[in-house]
Amino acid sequence: MAEISLLTPYKMGKFDLSHRVVLAPLTRTRSYGNVPQPHAILYYSQRASKGGFLITEATGVSDTAQGYPETPGIWTKEQVEAWKPIVKAVHDKGGIFFCQIWHVGRVSSYGYQPNGQAPISSTDRPIPAQTHHDGTVEEYSTPRRLRTDEIPNVVNDFRLAARNAIEAGFDGIEIHGAHGYLLEQFMKESANDRTDEYGGSLENRCRFALEVIQAIVDEIGADRVGIRLSPFADYMEAWDSDPEALGLYMIQALNKFGILYCHMVEPRMAIVDGRRQIPHRLLNLRNAFNGTFIAAGGYDRDEGNKVVAEGYTDLVAFGRLFLANPDLPKRFELNAPLNKYDRVVLAPLTRSRSYGNVPQPHAILYYSHRASKGGLLITEATGVSDTAQGYPETPGIWTKEQVEAWKPIVKAVHDKGGIFFCQIWHVGRVSNYGYQPNGQAPISSTDRPIPAQTHHDGFDGIEIHGAHGYLLEQFMKDNANDRTDEYGGSLENRCRFVLEALNKLGILYCHMVEPRMAHVDGRRQIPHRLLNIRNAFNGTFIATGGYDRDEGNKVVTEGYTDLVAFGRLFLANPDLPKRFELNAPLNKYNMSTFYTQDPVVGYTDYPFLESSA
């Protein structure tokens, strides 16, 4: 059997690694109040192995370092104490654990800053609104340019954070000098327009980062210090006209400090003939560095094994693969299948079983039946107010009682590892007096805001129902909108209502419905009219509309969509992803039980593969 280079031992300074598979730092946004939580004990210990090397999620060095929700810090005594049992759990399994410390700089907004102040940066130029890799849109506040005399204070924040990390029991720290955050804002010319000794020349632009390294090395020793760099990347509008020169300058400076390792990010990979192609631009930097070199950026088992075998890198950091596979080194050893987030989505389906507009306990079974690890589920359409109703026994989310009723349903999905979004709607004129409070007329416009209740019942997000002729679409389409104010007439005006809602929320994905399919020679034909819209959208794209296994597989393979939502097939087959995997027979869908209010029949009684065999 050929040697698996990724799984060979490696000596990193005083640390004896049993393999070369590194857990990359991954922001997890689960450190409530910026304090690491007990659930992180399980997360990190699951990924620990004897002699395995783990790097924490990015951890703030001060209260001004924050730019994302619920990210951990290490500047207070409470945070240090909270890290200790997490570190101990990794050490108990024989792992080596480094804490990545960062300051986000201008990648922030007033809401994350103490007293609502401006974020600090190398510059006073803000980052334009960004669409992240997951499709979410983030707006950033105008930063305040650090005065020259303030910079030593930030350097000291990094020094104290490193000291605190050692007190918490970490084996060392990784300085986050990549991805457009504060250190890189100084290093890269696109984000540094300073005229003092921290701006202008390459030497000046790197001065701040090198002062941080010097302070940390003086505090805890070079043998416990690593750094992450991304000279070739352009994250957060941070780019450089000569990234290789920047990288080499930093490498040569790092050699003088004698730090333990350099963790370098590849340029963005490309997809060629359906396979990832990693640019492999790091060789000159790797050859110039005297310490341990870690490469990151889209590697899989084969590619990682190859670059270690060829000496291109010493270690390889894995992010998403390690996230989905806590036992990744063992899977690499056995060449075992890897968990992956499936692309089969439960489409929203009106179920008419929420008596009194309150979700019922039988929904726990319905949704948990269809949940799977990493699978995305979208609830049935859920009313935003008492005027939003137009069908019998549909759920709402505008009262405390409804919010509390959703919580155990959401928990059941999360307990199976599912991702759960709540679809919210207002039916508008698709209603009658009987569904409206006090028998009033249905409304066709409203000034009610989208409720914030979904933030408090555990859902991972919300889907706004802007389709199928309901209120938002009544505004958007000219056949239902005869208004003469700023919400009617032109295309811009007709879309104003829905865009006002979106502007307050930001957006992760677009879930688009195909035109009605036709039947040709006894087979369904899906029109496939969404390609231009899919290509124009920057986020995750979900297609729906009559897809089956073969057609869904085809459109994902061809890049026509990222995910496919299934309605009736998922309703009749709670284990649909498993049936697709095995190409197993499907239960037939029963239309006669679709809109009934029975809590079992047509709801939770469709058989699973095992029981129908």
Structure description:
The protein has 613 residues and is α/β, with parallel strands linked by helices. It has two domains: 5-334, Aldolase class I (TIM Barrel); 344-507 and 567-612, Aldolase class I (TIM Barrel, Alpha-Beta Barrel), CATH 3.20.20.70. Helices cover 30% and strands 16% of the residues. It contains 19 helices and 27 strands. The chain has an eight-stranded parallel barrel, surrounded by four helices. Strands 18, 19, 20, 21, 22, 23, 26 and 27 form an eight-stranded parallel beta sheet that branches. α11 (362-369) links the parallel β18 and β19. α3 (151-167) packs parallel to α5 (202-220) and α11 packs parallel to α12 (400-415). The longest helix has 19 residues, at 202-220. It is globular and about 75 Å long. The two termini are 39 Å apart. Residues 269-275 and 445-455 have low confidence and may be disordered.
Using the CA coordinates, give the radius of gyration: 27 Å
What class, by secondary structure content? alpha/beta
Tell me which CATH architecture of the largest domain applies here: Alpha-Beta Barrel
Determine the N-to-C terminus distance: 39 Å
Determine the mean pLDDT: 86
Question: Which consecutive residue ranges, at least 5 long each, have pLDDT under 50?
Answer: 269-275, 445-455
Strand content range? 15-25%
Shape: globular
CATH topology of the largest domain: TIM Barrel
Total tally of structural domains: 2
Sheet with most strands: 8 strands, parallel, barrel
Helical element count? 19
Cofactor: FMN
GO biological process, one term: jasmonic acid biosynthetic process
Family: Belongs to the NADH:flavin oxidoreductase/NADH oxidase family.
Pfam families: Oxidored_FMN (PF00724)
